[in-house]
């Protein structure tokens, strides 16, 4: 395939499979001025061939809407790509060896950054001590975030950069959580040079484009990144060819809303923490953890949620919250319901406020999400990584509670809008893997069809920002699409006994790749955003 880069060009793509509800048998598509102009059959495409600037022979490839990753930390993702990745370390000793090698290889870095350690996967289950980190880093500042990014281990040299750190909540001679973690993370990221930060952002966006991702929702905030990081990313995305970036700024109250608007965010939302994470024992629960004698940490209560939703609704901005534990989700629901009583249910529903993660749900809170028009911005890869009878969820909560987590099918049945994301770098950017994780959830009753999961990862992200006209290949929609090399297309649905599928597009349903676990995932050949090519696979 040749490369088209100008969004003003008129391009005919033909000879493939075009995933479009406008025509389940479509093999061709015309793109003009950055929008989809037509989709249809091969025979009808002949009428367009003479009047276009370029004809692309798809050679049997699949064309789909580009994916939207609805929850990304872009700079951290890029730093994980360019920094130390501990997610594959099989033991504490192996992780410390990787730290030593990394420190030796980067003598000029002001701070050493790493991510992805997970004691649940290590023999003995022990995190590194500060003395071990001081030795491995040769006395330099070192920040290593846990896989869920809600705690971190650090070296003494990094602690020395944060005055009063020992008096902050969450300070221990071990993994730091809560305020202590936020402080050391701010110091670590603050030591990253602007050039290093821009390099990381470019790396993350390029990697996203190579995976068929056309849009990312950046979840930033004062406890997560910085204003310079956020505005720099939005500026980079506007000036350079790549995926779209939609920015959320997680700061509470009137001041946070004013700052979000001034920074160019579409909402005072994203990781506005109502609680923490299960892996770090900081998700807020109604009943104590099975492996700890407490119920986690609450950062915002019902009244704070209500005040923020009221202020955002009246300001015309989205509100949104990070809520994982069942007590945190209840606080969000009660707060949003109180806000609806104050400003009106119709206004709250129209604002499409969001809840990030929303893992521990009950039938009552699911019904409330539907009633209040809340979008569930969820991460199916969490279940693939931590679900199952022997997974981290079961360790933290016990098998019975763990089986209730991430109930995607119940959310869809209730009519709750779903938007899929990765929370990268918590789990990798991996859109087809995300769709597979939802369709083959470790708890069978929570599985959804491949089609429903695909829609949540394409159109769902656009709907989450109030755009119902995008994320689908129909005339008038933005020309955000990806071209894939894949095997035969099927229509695949969940079943309690076995995944059933068919090569017959039932009821005019366009097919999708067979995502049965064990098989190869589709390979991205090209990604196009607004009619402009942002990725072409080398040698294709």
Characterization of the model:
- It is a single chain.
- By secondary structure, the protein is of the alpha/beta class.
- It folds into three domains: 8-64 and 471-485 and 521-534, Urease, subunit C, domain 1 (Roll), CATH 2.30.40; 73-189, Diaminopimelate Epimerase, Chain A, domain 1; 193-463, Metal-dependent hydrolases (TIM Barrel, Alpha-Beta Barrel).
- Helix 4 (130-136) links the parallel strand 9 (112-117) and strand 10.
- Helix 2 (74-82) crosses helix 7, helix 3 (92-105) runs parallel beside helix 4 (130-136) and helix 11 packs across helix 12.
- The chain is globular.
- The model is unreliable at 496-507 (pLDDT under 50).
SSE order and pairing:
Elements: E1 10-14, E2 17-18, E3 28-32, E4 35-40, H1 42-45, E5 54-57, E6 62-65, E7 67-72, H2 74-82, E8 84-85, H3 92-105, E9 112-117, H4 130-136, E10 142-146, E11 152-154, H5 156-159, H6 178-190, H7 194-210, E12 213-220, H8 227-239, E13 244-249, H9 253-263, E14 267-268, H10 302-315, E15 318-323, H11 326-343, H12 345-351, E16 354-357, H13 363-372, E17 375-378, H14 380-386, H15 392-397, H16 399-402, H17 408-414, E18 418-420, H18 431-439, H19 450-457, H20 459-463, E19 481-485, E20 489-493, E21 500-502, E22 512-513, E23 523-529, E24 532-536
Parallel strand pairs: 1-5, 2-6, 7-12, 8-9, 9-10, 12-13, 14-15, 15-16, 16-17, 17-18
Antiparallel strand pairs: 1-3, 3-4, 6-19, 10-11, 19-23, 20-21, 20-22, 23-24
Helix pairs in contact: 2-7, 3-4, 7-8, 10-11, 11-12, 11-13, 14-18, 18-19
